[in-house]
TrEMBL record:
Active site: H279, D337
Keyword set, alphabetical order: Acyltransferase, Transferase, Tricarboxylic acid cycle
Organism this protein belongs to: Paracoccus suum
UniProt xrefs under PROSITE patterns: CITRATE_SYNTHASE (PS00480)
CC annotations in GO: cytoplasm
The keyword Acyltransferase belongs to this UniProt entry's keyword annotation: yes
Protein name (Swiss-Prot/TrEMBL): Citrate synthase
Length: 402
């Protein structure tokens, strides 16, 4: 690691690193990734152990506070999150201003940004107490907002949170309850939902987290910063890949068509990529993908649809790609998004909800990273340099002379 600030002073020397492939923009004590070994730790704890033994709200506490909670701390944290799950009643009108057929991510970018107008009593970032309240509000309300965006998009009435349910069960309730029928959340599905939240909770300085940090470095309020993160996450190269991956698997449709798509992905003249494959940092299996694959098997067998054609296509595609020289040479492995869509689809979510679910899961990572940054006494505004490649100085030409 070379700290260039110590090597060079003054503005005349700088590094050029498009895509930040080898430049750290910050120090962080939250999440560690070893891309060569395929390891991911939250605050030092391996993701596999947290996936098996912990649950999302405990992981939220860990990410935010740095240590696992004791029983009293966890109970207090859960109680505080639960108390914040409702959204301001006037936000209902705000939702109703959107077209019914808007993508839930579009609605979420707007609604979360607008939280600074609804909760401006927690936007003073100089006050640690307000920073804490804003963070808790976002972790608590994002499931409600995502579920409302979904309900609105399908023309159903909003469902209020039911606070005797767990965080994950409550989200399923808000998405799938309808007034005329009693919806009972299956605990196994709630556990699978919780696992998806846990696996997506943080992933160090990815594009959306870096966006949150960059926005926050100017002193912008936390709701605006998280809205910026949501906007960035939506891109198909990032969080939008879970929707794109399932759509691709459905388009492939049957196992016999896989070679055609593998050939397309390898063709330099074809922009097609295998969605859910490859990662900037992992040059080995994404550890989250392994857990997700096991969970996909469990959920589909629980629902009695283990012969699901899409899962068959996914497994066969993975097998063929992992034996193919192109994917071996470029170290392209399935990432977290490869199997998550299959689980979400089996649970009943349309593809348009996949990225909103990623966004609500990642909110704790974003707020933890934002809080870590704002608490740094040496915080500097993020301001990348550029390598100018435009015209040299030239004189203005009058309109009639052009
Ligand atoms: N299918 C086929 N070829 C690929 C794929 C893929 N999914 N991913 C990368 N490659 C190839 C590229 O064409 C490139 O080939 P080249 O060296 O011959 O030019 C090489 O592998 C390196 O690819 P880059 O795009 O330079 O790698 P980068 O680290 O910038 O991109 C990314 C990583 C964006 C994730 C890329 O692998 C990708 O587009 N994957 C598909 C989308 C996806 O699944 N995104 C989710 C990422 S995980 C997340 O955000 C939660």
């Amino acid at each position: 690691v070379v700290d260039i600030r110590k090597l060079y002073s003054g503005a005349d020397v700088f590094t050029y690193d498009p895509g930040f492939t080898s430049t750290a923009a910050c120090e962080s004590a939250i999440t560690y990734i070893d891309g060569d070994k395929g390891e991911l730790w939250y605050r030092g704890y391996p993701i596999e152990q947290l996936a098996t033994s912990s649950h999302y709200l405990e992981v939220c506490y860990l990410l935010m506070q740095g240590e696992l909670p004791n029983a009293a701390q966890l109970a207090d944290f859960e109680e505080r999150i639960t108390r914040h799950t409702m959204v301001h009643e006037q936000m209902h009108y705000f939702f109703r201003g959107f077209r019914r057929d808007s993508h839930p991510m579009a609605t979420m970018v707007g609604v979360v940004g607008a939280m600074s107008a609804f909760y401006h009593d927690s936007t003073d970032i100089t006050d640690p107490m307000q920073r804490e309240i804003a963070s808790m509000r976002m972790i608590a309300k994002l499931p409600t907002i995502a579920a409302m965006a979904y309900k609105y998009s399908i023309g159903q009435p909003f469902v209020y949170p039911q606070n005797d349910l767990s965080y994950a069960a409550n989200f399923l309730h808000m998405c799938f309850s309808v007034p005329a029928e009693k919806y009972v959340v299956d605990p196994a599905l709630a556990r699978a939902m919780d696992l998806i939240f846990t696996l997506h909770a943080d992933h160090e300085q990815n594009a959306s987290t870096s966006t949150v940090r960059l926005a926050g470095s100017s002193g912008a309020n936390p709701f605006a910063c998280i809205a910026a993160g949501i906007a960035c996450l939506w891109g198909p190269a990032h969080g939008g890949a879970n929707q794109a991956a399932l759509e691709m698997l459905e388009e492939i449709g049957t196992v016999d068509r896989i070679p055609e798509y593998i050939a397309k992905a390898k063709d330099k003249d074809d922009p097609f990529r295998l969605m859910g494959f490859g990662h900037r940092v992992y040059k080995n299996f994404d550890p989250r993908a392994k857990v997700m694959k096991e969970s996909a098997d469990e959920v589909l067998s629980l629902l009695g649809i283990e012969n699901n054609e899409t899962l068959k296509v996914a497994k066969e595609l993975e097998r063929i790609a992992l034996e193919d020289d192109y994917f071996i040479e470029k170290k392209l492995y399935p990432n977290v998004d490869f199997y998550s869509g299959i689980i979400l689809s089996a649970m009943g979510f349309p593809t348009s909800m996949f990225t909103p679910i990623f966004a609500l899961s990642r909110t704790v990572g974003w707020v933890s990273q934002w809080k870590e940054m704002i608490g740094d006494p040496e915080l500097k505004i993020g301001r990348p340099r550029q390598l100018y490649i435009g015209e040299g100085r030239r004189d203005y030409v009058d309109l009639k002379s052009r």
